[in-house]
Amino acid sequence: MASPSTIHSSINKHNYYPPPNNTISYPGSPISSRGETSFIYSNSTISGYGGQNRFPQSPKSQTSDPLKSYPPSIYNTVHRGSTSNEEQPSPSVSGSIQENKSVFPPTDDMKQKAIMDLKLSESSFKIIYAGDVSYKPDKGLLSITKKVHLVLSNNQLLVYKSSQKARAELDMFNMQQSKQTAIPKIDKDRVFLALHDIYAVHYVVTPVNTFRIEYLHVHSRQSLSHLITAESAKECQHWIHALQKAIRIHRPRIDTVTNSEKNNVIDRISKQSDALSKRDDIVMYKVVFKEKRYKASGDQPKEVFLPVIFAIGKFSFYFSPISTHDGEYLKTIERDRFGLLSIQSIKFDNSDDTVIIEVRQINKKSRQLVFATTFCEIIVQYLRRAIDSIIPPNHIPPVYIANIASNIKSTRIIPYIIEPDPEDDILGYDDEVKMFNSTLRAYCASLNLNKNRFNFSVNGPPKAKSFVLHPPNEVRDLSVTYTKYELIAILRSLAISNFFQEISLRDIPLSDLESWNTSSSDGWSMVENHPFNNSNVLSNEIYDILINLNALRKLDLSNCQIGNCQDEKESAIAAIGLIMSSGKTSVSRLCLGRNNVPKSDMLKLVNGIKEHKKSIKELYLDYCNLTKEMSELVLKTLAEKNPEQVLCLDLSIEKGKEAISPDYINPIFQVFRRLVVLRLRGHNILDDNYKLSLEESHLKELDLGDSRIDNDMVTKLCKWIRSPSFLTIEALHLGGCNLNGRHVYDILTSISQSNNRVMHLNLENNPIMKEVMHLPKLHSAFSQGEGPTSISFARLEWDDPTLREFIDSLRDNQTVTHLDLSDVTMKDTDIVSQDTIKMLSSLFERNSYLKDIKLNFKYLKKPRTSLSSFSRPIISDAITSSLIGLRHNTTLEKIDLTGLGMEDPGALALAHVLKTNRGLKTILIDENNITIEGYRSITKSIEENANQVIHFPTPKMDHRNQLKYLVYRIEELIMAENEAQFFLIHTSGGEKKREKKHELEMMVQERKACELATKQFGDVIRSLEIAVSKNLREYQEQYSRSMELQLQAQAAAQEMAIAQVRIQGRAGSVNSFHRSQSGSISRQNYPISSSASITSSNSSINNSRIRQGSITGYGASKRVIPESHNSPPSFPIPRPESSIYTPNGNILGQGYPVQPYPNITNSSIPNNQNLPYPPPEFEMLPQSSIYPHKGYNEAEVQNSFPDFGYVDDFEYDSEVSYMYHTKPDTSRYYDIQNEEQLAQALQHKLYLPPDTRD
Q1: Taking the complete model, does pTM exceed 0.85, yes or no?
Q2: Is the dihedral of CA 1139, 452, 448, 475 positive or negative?
Q3: Which of 949-963, 1099-1113, 1211-1225 is most confident?
Q4: Dihedrals φ, ψ of 677, to 5°?
């Protein structure tokens, strides 16, 4: 232990993982299992007087149990017990020590016993310690040092001029007995301090052998202190331990905080929304804050002591001033709030009442917060309890290092439940999402972040949720991307939440974390003795996520700007490979595309795939600068590992790079027999050099983009399209393949002949309109409805007549439901003709099959600076003028107008449409340079008329750009006003002065309008979000009510059918009953017999709704097709680079639909024309925000997600799907032959109101 003179030196470095046993010993004092000094009263130890004044010891006291005199306390949570072999106490007290079974917070029995012991102590008298000392009060008229003789009793600290005076008034020999006696009459002048007024005893740096006693004035409760100097260091230590022991029993009576101080602290905590639900639950104590100050001229520090109030909230702890006008407080504390998760270490060695908390700081070294209080053990335990309530105590690596006594560390902490944010309760989040939000709020408090910046979505059932991080919300003038500290908060919150099965950070820049080197000068970057111990922060954070999340199966880091490390350091890609090699993670799906992966890092990743304990099911390495050799190595490794487990593979490369050898491509479908997604952009695998047999595939998605396809290749492709293997395809990408109109016509007709028209065809960036001789035939094909239901003509160049004819061919098209016309460019014209505008408006008005249309402008848009003009495509005005055709359209549900630069005319046109349109549910209109007036008009239309709009993404870019422009315009107007005023001052009367004055008035009005718009723009956007959220909430409520009504109607129909069977009264009626049910299975599949018909009839009733074909719904929807071993099972397809629409409204591979709401189609429910919703047997989940479903059975959910993927396993079931199939409730179905049961059901259920049925 450090000497008193160095007790407050800098904290020692600790290991990352704290040792299991931290036995602390003090010079000359044995340690009990409680970690406290056992005071043995003998001539040579504490019970004698200091120096030469010692008295004879009673013989009984030498043999008495030293622990019997240790008084229990209301907060003393330690019980006697025997230590284990790892924690052996000193021989002098080991016989009386038992196993520690302590609990915190104390129980009612412990509190009651402490109060009884306090009353017993106050009604008796006993001397504990005495000795000669020198003391000096810190305040007073004559602050001089006095030498006195102090006597410590069990209730008071007495003062005498000498030991002889003390001996004359007190029977020192008899008072050394272990038993307590009656209280003698003591002169009040002899009372130096009452023990219940002392709130801290601690060492000081200078002078040596000195300690301070902090106490409260008897009447004013002002904080005062005495400086006590003992004759030696050992004597000083004995005094402190004796005072600690004597004061501990008086803790129930010590009240250090007044009511006014308590109210001030509660107000401060409430401002941070950090207060607990009950005011009395807030931990609050008066402490002495200690700080060393060094002068430039000397090495000897000056120690400053400042009484403050220590308090603990939900996510932070506070050092609040006693007086609001305390200048010394601001100078010493600097800041009054510190996050609980910023605590790096807690040190309390029980040598005195001092606690040292080391906290992490942003862009600074960690800081030590040193304070002293007699409630030190209690505060340490409350801090541990508060942290354990946020983060599980068994989390590895631990959040902080606890360098505390073993008895405190082994105490069982009972955490409390943190109340969720009111917003969480309003939105109905489940417990897992609430826990994640609480953890994130705690990190935001520790890093001083704004939680409103975070934008993410959580979907899925319990223990199998998916997390998607979106770009940050616009808050004031903060960065448009996440800062490195915001990323630290989100990643560490994820590492603690062991219920995520998928984590997606796609398109979120992580380069700041990867370039952030670990350093002791930044506490948030440095974790001592981290198991992975990588030089960059991102690798360590990825390690924590992969190691701690046992349920994690998929990690998406696509386009995260990873791999740009300097000085040839390893990237996070290499870290993932090393973690997979260690066998400590269960990830089997990796999305790492569009990152710069060096060759050395790729080799480590490939080696990790090879040595991984699980088989890789999905691997996306598109545009990762892979060479031919590296791509072939990846294919070889996957083929050697367990090729039958590979489901999705993406090895796309930039156009013009060397492609993979045919030796690796040709047998790909024979090796990877269960492959459902294959993306090989840039490899030109339809070339004659390749002998790839597409007819042997069972793909759902194929990407052949950026390939040079000629007539022979198109013929070969069309042959495959007409083959049976094409029936499983849901998306075919042929973008950038140099296709002309004739090629497209052949592909469209082949798709029509294939009977698989419910799929997406991507024809973007092809010169389709270049050879005009093929266009009439192509337009005729569209007019006749040839081709798939979803098609993309993005990034195409048109001339005005060709565009008009194409739109004309779509007006009466009855096939296409999803159309992508984004990034339309015009050739040889600067304006779109009125005829083309009328044709586009007519398309909106006449087409009754189109559900989704994209008219956005994204790829070809020029980057805009804060002061540059908005780039407007030529098609912008045409789209604005044609929106009027949507006034009475009832089928179009989604329209994307992002990036067109329509400005306020476009917003006003859309607002006018929404007054009468009742079909649009999703509208995307960001990046259109719309002002506050435009969004105000849209908000008004949605609030008053368009209650069907339930998805309107926040226009972040418009909000940001408008605020920048308004600030710039205000500054410009202020300068113009100053110039105008200068002109008016120095100009005499006349016409020019009047004109200038009028001009000045106009500038003032415009400036005020800009200032008002700056203040109100955010409020208008929030009003828009509130209106859309209200519509979504009403829609969900209506949907739930409709589902309930449908369930009741179907239950009543079943009961009526059973009643029919009973009335017929013969066994043969079962056959007719079986035939009469709608949706039942035909006889050839289910032969009827007297025994089998009963079972099959019930099963057909229960399951008929599941067999009614395609299901479209809220969450992930997919076609329900019975699987067999002969046909490829149904697997979810990961998200492609561009949006791919599937027949049921999904973005292919995301597992959830494009819209965050059910697709309302009357064909979804064949048996109920009035309820256009999916069957009730399917529980759905939302996409865009966290709306958990309350109908999950956790046990069933866990069983529905088996841990597939090991090398020797073979996966027959489909992978994780967000559609949860509930088993039908058969409890209400009765035996048809039991007439009594049927009669009872009819009497008690059939004619009861729906709300009273079981």
Answers
A1: no
A2: positive
A3: 949-963
A4: -130, 125
